[in-house]
């Protein structure tokens, strides 16, 4: 059975932790340390400790184990406040109104969330409620489908900044990108950035729809757009995965940060995505995740 790469290992401790977990779950694997690959008997110093391979048919299960372990490593030394500083607490329920917003903002302030991500029509109210706090006011443009014209998105984004938004999550035109118009889709995002600068823009790619190759190409093309973040998805079309985060991180780092969104319901989910390289997490379950962290880690 062919062996495929699961991950590079930094040190012996990590190697022991990962191989033990794979053995416990019955996943066939091979640890190849860099000492094993010495050329003509000479060891050439390389970055890290080695590489871990698994049988191809076990790769999906191995990735699940890998994500869980990576999350555990990230959690070491992290406090609930540290976690909250990565959370964009999200309220994008189309039925939400002022009462739901006020409860949402209380939760944001109580945990010190990075941002409150809210519907456009509630932006000015959210800005008033968050005035003087460190929690950013985040709203959305071209949401959730992204098929509006470029000028429409730029105009919507500018009006949200006028209403008090300090961050804009805008949806990339994936239909345009998929039919060969990647450069035009990127220019739409650059126009949004120009319309709202110096406020931060997060580009929602919907990586599950674009696929790995086009997602990576789009991320690379957005390096010079002025955007601050690449975002995996809107949350309306499936969950964010560590693999998707890894694709965006590899293509955009260090100039573009990564926000994961969609299906983040538990502390374990959150830590796995942070371990994969996410800088922010967009989740409607942020408050529950924060409380889970407090229960496990203390204050």
Could you please describe the fold and organization of this structure?
This protein is an alpha/beta fold. It has 2 domains: 3-75, Alpha-Beta Plaits, CATH 3.30.70; 80-297, Alpha-Beta Barrel (TIM Barrel). The protein has 12 helices and 11 strands. The chain has helices spanning 12-24, 59-75, 80-84, 98-111, 123-130, 150-162, 174-178, 182-196, 207-221, 242-252, 267-276, 286-297, and strands at residues 3-9, 29-33, 50-55, 87-90, 115-118, 136-141, 167-171, 200-204, 229-231, 257-261, 280-283. Strands 4-5-6-7-8-9-10-11 form an 8-stranded parallel barrel, surrounded by 6 helices. Strands 1-3-2 form a 3-stranded antiparallel β-sheet, with helices on one face. Helix 2 packs across helix 11 and helix 4 (98-111) runs parallel beside helix 5 (123-130). The relative contact order is 0.12.
